[in-house]
Structure formats: structure tokens, C-alpha cells
Recover the amino acids of this structure.
């Protein structure tokens, strides 16, 4: 445990989040996600028993979201539903992340197999204990620092 | 970089600090310290160019000090000086850490070769870029959490 750090952030997850750079992506996946095979050697951090909402809260407490893209958050769209559909869990997670979004930014629904491709390109996968299906999200990391000296 | 996290804390150092438990010790060493041989396989985190004061500030921003010992902070005493002697750097570091100490707690001077033994028993060594000799410190980790339910 460390001062002010959410204890759901394991040492390895903290290390990964700090090591990620601008626009590196972190997948937060539900318990059924094919994390290990999709990761193909990239880190998979396991948070068994941890809900997606708690994992999102812990990660977003430290991880800045990318300010220079329209969709710093993406989620796996529920198959067979219209593009505007959001499950209860998806609504809850998006509501939790909304204070982090800038004007004009929003969360992007991504079709299941396209989501897998995005996950393959991510920096790491956090496999939560979330049991709700289609409980998969991607966060793109932003920057912290000074303004550009022109 | 992460929100509110001192960027001197490398991903590996963050990982180590989070992984440490109650009363695990972290050595903060000057640039001449025999870190690699004393560590004997335990982690050595290198912060080249970083002063001891900056390293202490970064580490103590997250690491709680042990509340249940008299000396949660120790330092390598300057050889040949009386026990009460403190170098300028030692005074500065102790002043920086004093707000973290409880009543009755203090920093403990430790003779050089005894310090090496303590360092061998530590969890990890942070090798800073500090050029002042005898600029070596040990911090013992405390706990964060709830009070005991009796």
C-alpha cells in the first residue's frame, strides 16, 4: 500500500501504467475476455474478483486520458444491438469516465472483432473479475506536463 | 507520467514501493554506494543525475514510514565524527523527513559497515546521482489502512 494509491493497482499494474506513454492503450476486460491469447506475450494483469467499475475507478485515478483524440475511451459494442445501445455496465463506466472527457470527446462503441484487433495493438490487458458480458473497455493514455514553449 | 505521481519514480521503483510490505526497508544511496554487490541480486533502481533530496522527496511522497519503530529513518554516519555529527546533506534530508515522523521517532546514525549489513537485508536499493559522500539512507515502510477491530 502507498499513500493515496488505490490498492487495487497491483505493483505490476502501477509499473505498466507509469511505463505507458502518450496514446498507449490499456484494455480493461471482463472475466471472460480472451486476454492471454490476444495479449500474445504482452502483459496481462489479473484482478480476480474486482468489478469493472472498481477497476476503472482505480486506473483512472492515476491515468490521464488522451486529450488530442475524439475517443479516448472505447468499449466493445453488444453484438446484434444498434450502435446507440449501451448495457447497464457500459452506461455506468461511461458515466464514471465522463468527468475525465473534454468537450467534443466521447466513448466509442467498437464491434467485437474490431475490438479484438484494437486489443492486440494495446500496451497491456487488465483482466478484471467482471461477470457482465461485453464489459470490455480501452483507455488511451494522455500526457502530463508543461505547455509547449513556442 | 501519471496524475499526481512524481516523475522521478520510475515504473520499476513504483512497482517495488507498492510491493514492499510493513517494515520492508528501502535504501536510498549516493552515487558511490556499492549498490550492485551489496544488493546481491535484489533490485537496484538507478536514478542517475538525481539528487538525494529530490529522490527522498519523490519516495516519501508515496511511501508511508513505519509508525511502530523508534527509527523509521537511518543514515550512514560520517566515519571518524562523533555520533551527533550530521553533514549538510544529512541535515537537509532529515529536515525533509521530519514532518513524516511521529513524536518520539528520530533518524538513527549507523556506522558504515553496520549500514552495509542493514542494506543487505533491505528490499531494494535506489542508487541516486548524489555526489556528497555518506549520502546514504534507509527508510522503513509503514502501513496504510483501517484501525484494528478489537
Amino acid at each position: 500500500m502507498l499513500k493515496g494509491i488505490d490498492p487495487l493497482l497491483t505493483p505490476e499494474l502501477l509499473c505498466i501504467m507509469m511505463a505507458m506513454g502518450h496514446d498507449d492503450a490499456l484494455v480493461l476486460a471482463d472475466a471472460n475476455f480472451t486476454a492471454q491469447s490476444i495479449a500474445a506475450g504482452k502483459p496481462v494483469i489479473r484482478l480476480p474478483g474486482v468489478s469493472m467499475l472498481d477497476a476503472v475507478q482505480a486506473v483512472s485515478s492515476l491515468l490521464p486520458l488522451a486529450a488530442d483524440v475524439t475517443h479516448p475511451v472505447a468499449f466493445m459494442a453488444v453484438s446484434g444491438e444498434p450502435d446507440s445501445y449501451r448495457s447497464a455496465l457500459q452506461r455506468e463506466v461511461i458515466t464514471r469516465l465522463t468527468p475525465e472527457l473534454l468537450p467534443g470527446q466521447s466513448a466509442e462503441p467498437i464491434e467485437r472483432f474490431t475490438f479484438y484487433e484494437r486489443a492486440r495493438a494495446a500496451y497491456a490487458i487488465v483482466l478484471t473479475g467482471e461477470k457482465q458480458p461485453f464489459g470490455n473497455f480501452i483507455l488511451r493514455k494522455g500526457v502530463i506536463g508543461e505547455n509547449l514553449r513556442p
